[in-house]
Write a structure and sequence with these properties.
Elements (H helix, E strand, L loop, with lengths): L1 H13 L7 E2 L9 E2 L6 E9 L2 H7 L9 H14 L7 E9 L6 H14 L4 E4 L7 H7 L3 E4 L7 H6 L4 E2 L6 H14 L7 E7 L2 H17 L4 E7 L4 H17 L4 E5 L4 H11 L5 E2 L7 H6 L13 E4 L2 H4 L11 H12 L7 H22 L9 H8 L26 E8 L4 E10 L3
Parallel strand pairs: 3-4, 3-5, 5-6, 6-7, 8-9, 8-10, 10-11
Antiparallel strand pairs: 1-2, 12-13, 13-14
Helix pairs in contact: 1-10, 3-13, 3-14, 7-8, 9-10, 13-14, 14-15
């Protein structure tokens, strides 16, 4: 019984009025008009995922993220006080997404509401894990600032150009190469039999086939054993994870890593405990290390000690005493903006969603400021402006940020991180590993 309760807990964790368009000659704006843009205003939707009620009902622990509407309005005030979006007023629309209802149908309904009812220029995505979500927004000429811990590769960004962007996270390709480099340096690849739990999506298969598996084999891995998982709902997740463990045991897998975002590692560790399967782990920010640390009774811990990997979001990875708060000028700016609106946080972990919102609106502003024709705001012209930023925009979350032609994900550095059994926590080791710029 308690195993089913644990599985529900993990699934809940990870599920984590209109205006007329303005005329614009740019491409990527849906023809003669741009949704959500007038001569003096730009409408932007912010998705929020409220886990308060589900946490109370199910008992799992994660850092509270405060009042998202207050955070959005505090940031909106600061953006509008510093020039708005290309001289236009930012008008926010906040849409709450219920984590318990996460499904392709629920994300399609949310996309319909935001693009058809709210008619916005851009949407800030949080907690959107289903693969149909992003093509829906792109098909409606809606810019996406993605702040969900589900990675996208270069091909996915190219396919959805000019609509999909991340102000904060690295591209999947860069991330995969940096992870393998860290494992090779720690002598965790040569001779190893490595299992890869991956979401059964085209993006995850591409990264496995084109980047991860070749890099592991070049590093001397004895074999790479893929285990694709249908992540549509709890039933398919359970079946897929149980089969993955059977496959890994039969292939004598001694190390496991994950492709597909924040849901897979915690859920896998619970299933592995039931089947008494243990292996070394490679864990990264995309695997939700905070949840693994904070919920030892819900997520099997036997394999966690000795885990290594790479991190790129301090509020998800490490305790505050391991990295100063703020650790960068950009993080300080975001915290100051929020504080001026009366929003403060006891810890970095509790501010992480607010800083992601801050990154998104700051990038929107930075792209609009660089337009060749300031009056012509659409997705295509904004995209060209952002890809000319280089390192002039810096994220309040990422260690370094860099945009140029062919780069839609701004995160351009990671740090090696390793589990420390003395504190049951993760620590960063060494300096930034620069991915671009």
């Amino acid at each position: 019984m308690w195993r089913a309760w644990v599985a529900t807990v993990v699934l809940v964790l990870v599920a984590l009025p209109a205006v007329m368009g303005a005329t614009s000659p740019g491409d990527g704006g849906g023809g003669d008009t741009v949704p959500g843009v007038t001569d003096d205003a730009v409408r932007v939707a912010f998705v929020t995922v409220d886990l308060t009620a589900t946490q109370a009902a199910l008992g799992f622990r994660t850092a509270p993220q405060g009042d998202p509407e207050a955070q959005v309005h505090a940031l909106t005030d600061q953006i509008n006080a510093t020039g708005g979006i290309g001289g236009r007023e930012l008008v926010p629309v906040v849409r709450r997404y219920e984590a318990l209802d996460d499904s392709p149908e629920a994300e399609q309904a949310l996309c319909d509401a935001i693009t058809q009812d709210d008619e916005v220029f851009a949407v800030v995505l949080v907690g959107q894990f289903q693969p149909n979500a992003r093509p829906c927004y792109a098909g409606r000429d809606t810019l996406m600032l993605d702040a969900t811990l589900v990675p996208q590769d270069t091909q996915a960004y190219e396919d959805l150009h000019p609509y999909l962007w991340s102000a904060t996270f690295p591209s999947y390709d860069d991330w995969a190469r940096s992870l393998v480099t860290s494992l090779v340096a720690a002598d965790r690849v040569s001779g190893s039999r490595i299992g890869v739990v991956l979401a059964d999506t085209p993006t995850d298969h591409r990264v496995l086939d084109d980047v991860l598996a070749p890099s592991l084999q070049e590093g001397g891995a004895a074999t790479v054993v893929p285990a694709p998982i249908d992540t549509t709902d709890i039933g398919t997740l359970n079946v897929g994870l149980q089969q993955a463990i059977v496959t890994f045991r039969s292939q004598d897998v001694d190390q496991v890593l994950f492709l597909g975002g924040a849901r897979l590692a915690p859920f896998f560790l619970t299933a592995a405990s039931v089947q008494e399967f243990q292996s070394d782990l490679a864990l990264t920010t995309f695997d939700n290390p905070e949840f693994i640390i904070k919920n030892p009774e819900s997520v099997a811990q036997d394999s966690v000690p000795g885990s290594i990997g790479v991190g790129f979001q301090p509020g998800q990875d490490v305790f505050d005493d391991m990295l100063p708060v703020p650790f960068s000028d950009a993080e300080a700016t975001c915290l100051d903006w929020l504080a001026e609106g009366g929003v403060t946080f006891p810890s970095r972990a509790e501010s992480r969603t607010a800083i992601l919102y801050c990154d998104a609106v700051r990038l929107l502003q930075a792209g609009a400021e660089g337009l060749d024709e300031p009056d012509a705001l659409d997705a295509g012209s904004w995209a060209a402006s952002v890809q000319a930023l280089g390192d002039r925009f810096q994220s309040g979350v990422a260690f370094r940020t860099y945009f140029d032609e062919g780069r839609w994900a701004g995160g351009s550095a990671v740090r090696v991180m390793a589990h420390d059994a003395t504190c049951n926590c993760f620590r960063y080791e060494g300096d930034d590993v620069v991915l671009a710029g």
